[in-house]
Amino acid sequence: MIQTNEEQNVSEIDADENEITIDPATEENTIYEFSENVLKELSNNNIPSIPSNYSIYFDRMLEERSSNFKEKLENELTFYEQGAACSLDDGHVYIEKEIKQSFAQIKSMLQAVALVYKNLKLMTNIINTHKSNLKKGSDLLTIQNTLSAFNEDLSKLNSLMDKHVDVIRINYEEVLKMFNLIKEQAVYDSVYDVYNKKFLLNTLQLEYDAVRRYGYKCSFLIVKPSEKLLLNVKNLRDKSTLLKTMSKILMHKSRRSDTVGHYGEGYFMIIMRHTSVESAKLASTRLSKMFLKTKITINEHEKEISTQIVGGILDKDKTVEETLSDALDLFKSSNYSEEPMFLE
After folding, report:
1. How many angstroms from the chain centroid is the CA of residue 97?
2. 149-171 b/e (C-beta count within 10 Å ≥ 16 → b)
3. Per-residue CA distances from 262 to 78, 98, 326 (Å)
4. pLDDT at 283
5. Would you say residue 3 has pLDDT above 50?
6. Which residues pair with 222 in a beta bridge?
7. What is the DSSP pairing of strand 188-189 with strand 259-264?
8. For residues 82 and 12, what is the distance between their CA atoms, to the nearest angstrom?
9. pLDDT, position 172
């Protein structure tokens, strides 16, 4: 059972202590004016207006507008996004095709299995027929002829069965290849409903390359349950419930432009593009407080979700591997501190 206080804004973990708004008199009147201002802001910050950068700045600038403007703009966005909802990127199309082919192979397998079952029923009928013939005549010649005919029928049936088994084997191998291919391209952790470690590492590498090339700022947070809390978790079911609850909170309370994923072993990560370390520190503090407001029942006792958080900023002088190694080492050397910590 999970109990939470009043729902907070999606962008809460990245908001300032008091909501930042601009003078309503200077606010844009339409989505077109707002879009133009987003482009101007990108240009002023010497950031290319590629889709990913535009999306990040769009969300961040929208956070600064009044509630009325947000509502008005989101209504317009809903209208436009409905038209784009049916479009899929090439990756999704490719995976869908692979899945459809896999289902076709599975269908073929099931048809072969049905034929095997049909022939087994036929074999039963053959045996019953020969049994009946044996009862009618008991002389040696009749028995030999019956057994010979029976053996011939069995040989034909075995030949058919071998063909069906080959079809099943070939189709199974094809299905296995396709599913392994899909698994290799998977970007989602189906257990926690967030991105997987492979996608996180690829994203970090892309952001690191942007940091080196353009001087962008990219911060990250690694979040895990506190050791104190984990000591109270006595079984896998409770641990699974705890981690799934944390992943839901991270997904619902992060910005749309942030990347949330499961790094492995109960460690979650938030990659925060175009975010300074100062903003990441504020976000980590709010995130820690947000978890403490959430209650979860473990061993029939209500517990706060206390966490350990380590954050940092991608440094062009360190590789992604070195940065992650330093962050994970900080967890170990922190003496299980529940205060957010950051790499120097």
Report:
1. 20
2. ebeebeeeeeeebeebeebbeeb
3. 29, 25, 18
4. 92
5. no
6. 269, 310
7. unpaired
8. 26
9. 77
Maximum mean pLDDT: which of 33-42, 109-118, 132-141, 300-309? 300-309
Print the SS3 string covering the chain.
CEECCCCCCCCHHHCCCCCCCCCHHHCCCCHHHHHHHHHHHHHHCCCCCCHHHHHHHHHHHHHCCCHHHHHHHHHHHHHHHHHHCCCCCHHHHHHHHHHHHHHHHHHHHHHHHHHHHHHHHHHHHHHHHHHHHHHHCCCHHHHHHHHHHHHHHHHHHHHHHHHHHHHHHHHHHHHHHHHHHHHHHCCEECCCCEECHHHHHHHHHHHHHHHHHHCCCEEEEEEEECHHHHCCCCCHHHHHHHHHHHHHHHHHHCCCCCEEEEEECCEEEEEEECCCHHHHHHHHHHHHHHHHCCEEEECCEEEECCEEEEEEECCCCCCHHHHHHHHHHHHHHCCCCCCCEECC
Backbone angles phi, psi at 262, to 5 degrees: -100, 115
Is 83's pLDDT higher than 80?
A: no
The neighbouring-strand residues paired with 220 are 271, 312
Answer for the pair 310, 327: CB distance below 8 angstroms, yes or no: yes
Structure tokens at 314: 């991608």
How buried is 64 (Cβ within 10 angstroms: 0-12 exposed, 13-18 middle, 19+ buried)?
middle
pTM: 0.63
Q: Looking at per-residue confidence, does 97 or 43 come out higher?
A: 43
Residue type, 149: A
Give the mean pLDDT of the chain: 80
Torsion of CA 266, 272, 273, 277, to 10 degrees: -120
**Distance between first and last Cα of the chain:** 39
Structure tokens at 1: 């059972």
User: Is residue 260 within 8 Å of 254, Cβ to Cβ?
Assistant: yes
Cβ neighbours for 34, distance < 8 A, ≥ 6 positions apart? 28, 61, 62, 65, 73
CB atoms inside a 10 Å sphere around CB 333: 8
Q: How far apart are CA 310 and CA 268, in angstroms?
A: 11
In the prediction, which pLDDT does 36 show?
86
